[in-house]
Each structure stands twice: as structure tokens, then as C-alpha cells.
Specification:
By secondary structure, the chain is an alpha+beta fold. Helix content is about 25%, strand content about 35%. The strands form three sheets. Strands 1, 2, 4, 12, 13, 14, 15, 18, 19, 20 and 21 form an eleven-stranded mixed β-sheet that branches. Strand 8 and strand 9 form a beta hairpin.
Length: about 425
């Protein structure tokens, strides 16, 4: 007689009782997998909690920094000041940073341990603007951003250019450049509106429109909190500039190189060519303002000053433009080179009169009119034809190729998603 095998007892380990279920060989592996998954969930939860706490600390610090920034006053200064008058002057901090002013009154005040205004130590004094209309070109604003604002270790902005874009009744300031996000440098184009917040005496730069890669709209993206400018841009510890959400706030002239400038901004106007800032304050009380002998001049009165080895107590110096046919071009970086070409006179009352030629820009090249932002990016028919004849790619052709590649990438993404 053939006995049927009990299917339950087949391959039963030795010593196992009949009817007892066989232990699964996969049970330990399953338990280990569950434990690993639980550990991963715990680790991920811990990371999320840590990130949330870090974000809360960053936001709290940002709000505190913004509050301190808005409440912060002028730079500390010591010693007696020297009143200053500029008429029809173009003043340059560097080759890329120059302002034009038809009339400016201010007080130069020594800072820190300085007891007098030393015009050879540019970070040793500051200029408090009283009343002025100051004109800033897009090239000057571009120089401020590239040379000072975003020029620091770890900056995630580079290659900035600035132009003025007409948008109906208003003119927008257009910023082009590259933003580093994670490990990628993303080209962007941003249109901004400029305004003045008088209670806090700050210049406000608000984003109006943002495109990335030239043609892809991204304004909607920065409206989400994780992607607004406050999260995307890294900034140094600089109390003259801060970002809150998508608003950049700038203290007046806090972004200029030394000598630093401060003052109360009354309003700002953006024209198709220039940005005009108007300062409003109390006029200096000039005691011995000489009669104007020419349309362009700089006059200094009061306090102690030093130019090279020349020092004055109770300063009274008038510097007159040798060529009054254009703006008086001045720079403290290289003024000594033009003293041998100047006519210096010491008058009987102890005052000094200097008739001085225009200063070239600090880099040594003469100042030239800059093309407008719209014209700078356009190629004339002659240039396009010459480039085509030479077999070179024109800027327009390169732009079309870039757009075609972007469209191809967008179509591939749509195909993958089944859109």
C-alpha cells in the first residue's frame, strides 16, 4: 500500500510536530526591511524638522536684520565738518561709477579716529548731502552692483548689466545677469520699479517681471515663499542693503565706494536715459561764499582739511573749472596728477583759488557718451551684413538658436509627461 505524503509535513524541519506551521525563511529579511524603512522615515523626519527650525531661525534673523536696517541712521562721524558746494560737476569714484549734479550742497565729516577731513584717505570721512539733484546713469548703477554690492565671496549673482526699459508711462530698470541656484548658473532678465520709502529713508527696488533663459516667464515662481528673492539671493553682512520677500531695500548711496555718502532722499525719477535722485535737507550756512567766476566749480568752507601735504584750518578753497564748456570732471583718486597743470593762488585773506583742468576717469580714458540700453543690444544692418559676409554668427542668429534649443527642451519635457 502506498501512503500519501502529508503536504503540510513536507520538508518539515526535524523535531517539528505534525500540524505545526513551518516558519518562513523570509520572515527575518522582512523584519529587517521594515526596521530599515522605519529608520529612514525617522531620519527624514528629523531632517525636515531641523530644516523647518533652521528656516524659522533664518526668518527671525532676517526680520530682526530688516528692523535694525530700517532703524539704522547715518554712519557715525566725529570732528568738525567742512561745508561743500558743487555746481555743474561730474564726480567719479571709479571708471564705472560717476554721478552728474547741477548743484549739490553737503558737509564732509571725518570718521572714526580722524580729526580732520583728509581727502587722500577716502574711507576716513563721509559726505552728508544736504540738497542736491543727482543723476545716475545705468552704467553707474551697473558698476555699483558689480564692483560693490554683489562682489563678495559666495555671491550667487554675476555678470550684471543694467538698462532702462520703457513700459507705458513708467520707466523700469532692467537687470540682466546670471543667478546660481544649486550648481547651475541660470541667466535671467528682471524688470524692476524704483521708489522711495521716506519714513525709513530707503530706496526700494521691487520686481515687476522676471524671465529666465531669456524667454521663460518666472515672475509667478518667486511669488512662492521658498523661491522669493530673500531665499534665492545670498547677501553679505551689509547694513546698507537687505532683502525682504521680493523687495530690495537700499540706504541712500550706501552702495557707493568710499567716500561714503548719506542724506535724506526726497524722490526718485527714472527717465529713458538716467535715474534722478533728489535730496532735500537744510542748506549749509556759508559765511564767505565767493562770487561765482564761472559756471562750474567746487567750494569748500570751514573745518580742517588736508590735500596731500597741504593742510588748512578754517578751510576756504574754491576750485574752478579750466574748461567751462562741459561739466567739471573730478575724481579724488587722481587729482594730484593735475595740480602741476593748475593755477593755484593764495589770496590776501588766506583763502585759496585753484583753476584746474578736467580729470579723465580714474582708469585714464576720457569720458564718452554711453549708448542707450535699447541701442546697445541692437545690431545695425551694416554690422549684420558684414558679419554674414564674414561667415560669423550675428547676435540675432545666436539668440534664435538659443530660443530653438529651449523650445526643443520644453517639447521633450511635455512628451515625457504626456502633455
Amino acid at each position: 500500500m502506498v501512503l500519501e505524503k502529508d503536504p503540510i509535513n513536507v520538508n518539515r524541519p526535524a523535531g517539528a510536530k505534525p500540524g505545526q506551521p513551518m516558519a518562513s525563511k523570509k520572515k527575518p529579511a522582512l523584519i529587517a526591511l521594515i526596521v530599515i524603512l522605519l529608520l529612514l522615515v525617522a531620519i527624514e523626519t528629523g531632517i525636515i524638522v531641523a530644516q523647518s527650525q533652521a528656516n524659522k531661525r533664518i526668518e527671525a534673523q532676517s526680520e530682526q536684520a530688516l528692523s535694525q536696517f530700517l532703524k539704522s541712521g547715518e554712519q557715525p562721524a566725529t570732528g568738525s565738518g567742512t561745508d561743500l558746494l558743487m555746481q555743474n560737476v561730474r564726480f567719479c569714484w571709479s571708471r564705472q561709477i560717476c554721478i552728474n549734479t547741477p548743484r549739490l550742497t553737503a558737509t564732509a565729516v571725518p570718521m572714526g579716529q580722524q580729526s580732520l577731513v583728509n581727502f587722500d584717505t577716502l574711507n576716513g570721512f563721509m559726505v552728508r548731502v544736504r540738497n542736491a539733484t543727482v543723476q545716475i546713469s545705468p552704467q553707474t548703477l551697473q558698476g555699483m552692483f558689480n564692483e560693490s554690492v554683489f562682489n563678495y565671496p559666495g555671491s550667487n549673482l554675476r555678470d550684471l548689466t543694467v538698462g532702462i526699459q520703457q513700459a507705458g508711462p513708467q520707466n523700469l530698470v532692467r537687470l540682466n545677469g546670471s543667478l546660481k541656484y544649486l550648481f547651475l548658473w541660470i541667466p535671467f532678465e528682471m524688470d524692476t520699479r524704483l521708489s522711495v520709502d521716506r519714513p525709513t529713508n530707503t530706496l526700494v527696488i521691487a520686481v515687476n517681471k522676471l524671465n529666465v533663459f531669456g524667454v521663460i516667464p518666472a515672475t509667478w515662481l518667486i511669488e512662492f515663499k521658498p523661491f522669493n528673492l530673500q531665499k534665492l539671493l545670498t547677501l553679505p553682512a551689509n547694513r546698507h542693503l537687505t532683502i525682504s520677500g521680493n523687495l530690495m531695500r537700499v540706504k541712500p548711496f550706501g552702495l557707493f565706494p568710499p567716500p561714503r555718502v548719506d542724506g535724506r532722499i526726497a524722490d526718485i525719477t527714472v527717465t529713458p536715459q538716467l535715474i534722478s535722485l533728489r535730496f532735500a535737507g537744510t542748506e549749509p550756512d556759508f559765511q564767505t561764499l565767493p562770487r561765482q567766476s564761472g559756471p562750474n566749480r567746487v567750494y569748500l568752507e570751514g573745518g580742517s582739511t588736508r590735500f596731500g601735504k597741504l593742510g588748512m584750518i578754517n578751510t576756504q578753497i574754491q576750485v574752478i573749472d579750466q574748461n567751462p564748456g562741459n561739466l567739471f570732471q573730478l575724481s579724488l583718486l587722481n587729482y594730484k596728477a593735475f595740480l602741476p597743470q593748475s593755477d593755484v593762488k593764495l589770496l590776501a585773506d588766506g583763502s585759496v583759488t585753484v583753476v584746474m583742468p578736467d580729470h579723465p576717469t580714474p582708469a585714464g580714458a576720457a569720458l564718452k557718451p554711453q549708448p542707450s540700453a535699447s541701442a546697445a543690444g541692437q545690431a545695425t544692418p551694416q554690422k549684420v551684413e558684414s558679419a554674414q559676409q564674414a561667415g560669423k554668427e550675428t547676435p540675432k542668429a545666436g539668440e534664435n538658436k538659443l530660443k530653438a534649443k529651449i523650445n526643443q527642451a520644453k517639447n521633450k519635457v511635455k512628451d515625457v509627461l504626456g502633455l
